[in-house]
Specification:
alpha/beta, 10 helices
Length: 286
């Protein structure tokens, strides 16, 4: 049966109610491997961040002292800025950048290189010796097996090719295979990362926090507020740029769910129906 197209809400209150219902539906389907959900569950949660990083870097005694989500890095004028999903520091001063990359397009090797170099720029001030650079770990958790070799983790290290010895510059890049499954710690963690239902998870650490943000009224309120802030940011960008990608994404979702027509979505996006359909069919990626 063809989905009935809903009429657009006519009042701000009706729009807020419809958005809230969509937020609740979206929340039910979120998983830790969704970057917006991961950032929320790790925010100010050092124990959970430590638990996850211990498994990912295979350091059972790792002690995380700080964690920051949505960390902006840009210390060079004119340089491309990046926003880290989670940025942590351990008791020895080592730095950890945990990134969720569901799309293989967003997990390219040059992106990993840029993330690693940005961490170096962030952690060396004028006058400091280059030897003061901390050891860094750039960790990409990808939903697919990026290298298609069936390995749980792909450690990337610089080598002296003439001698066959490690370069030992303190920079480490890891690609974690989100499809990997077995009874090891990493296999169970990747299973949990792909679960939307906390009852299906292996680790109580993830069960508890996922249940809080999905079922506890306080946690649900926090998530819905985060969705609302994202929409507000999209609307602000739309006012400044005319056709904000965040707003377009929301309208595309409403259209594909059959909640509004292409004509209605195009009108709200400030474009023709043909332009809107082309954007939805051939989205622009950055």
């Amino acid at each position: 049966m063809k989905a009935e197209v809903m009429t657009m809400p006519e009042t701000p209150e009706e729009r807020r109610l419809q958005e809230h219902q969509r937020d609740l539906a979206r929340l039910r389907g979120l998983r830790p491997i969704d970057d917006d959900f991961l950032r929320c569950i790790l925010r100010d949660n050092i124990p959970l961040s430590q638990f996850i990083l211990r498994i990912l870097v295979n350091k059972p005694d790792l002690v995380i002292t700080e964690i920051e989500t949505q960390k902006d890095l840009k210390r060079l004028a004119g340089a491309r800025s990046i926003c880290l999903d989670a940025y942590g520091t351990d008791s020895e001063g080592k730095k950890y950048n945990l990134e969720i990359q569901r799309s293989s397009f967003g997990a390219g090797v040059h992106r990993a290189r840029y993330h690693a170099s940005s961490m170096d720029i962030e952690n060396l001030d004028a006058g400091q010796s280059f030897s003061d650079l901390p050891e860094t770990f750039t960790i990409f958790v990808t939903e697919e097996d990026y290298f298609n070799r069936g390995k749980p983790v792909y450690p990337i290290e610089r080598m002296n090719l003439a001698t066959g010895e490690p370069f030992n510059d303190g920079s480490h890049i890891l690609y974690v295979n989100g499809k990997y499954r077995d009874d090891t710690a990493i296999g169970k963690l990747m299973h949990d990362f792909s679960c939307w239902d906390p009852d299906d998870m292996n680790y109580k650490e993830l069960k508890e926090v996922t249940r809080y943000y999905k079922e506890d009224p306080k946690g649900v309120k926090i998530m819905c507020r985060a969705f609302e802030e994202t929409r507000e940011e999209g609307r602000a960008e739309g006012r400044e740029e005319g056709r904000a990608e965040g707003t377009l994404t929301t309208l595309a979702s409403l259209f594909t769910d059959g909640l509004i027509t292409a004509a209605q979505a195009a009108a709200r996006a400030g474009m023709t129906e043909k332009e809107f359909l082309e954007k939805v069919t051939h989205p622009v990626t950055t």
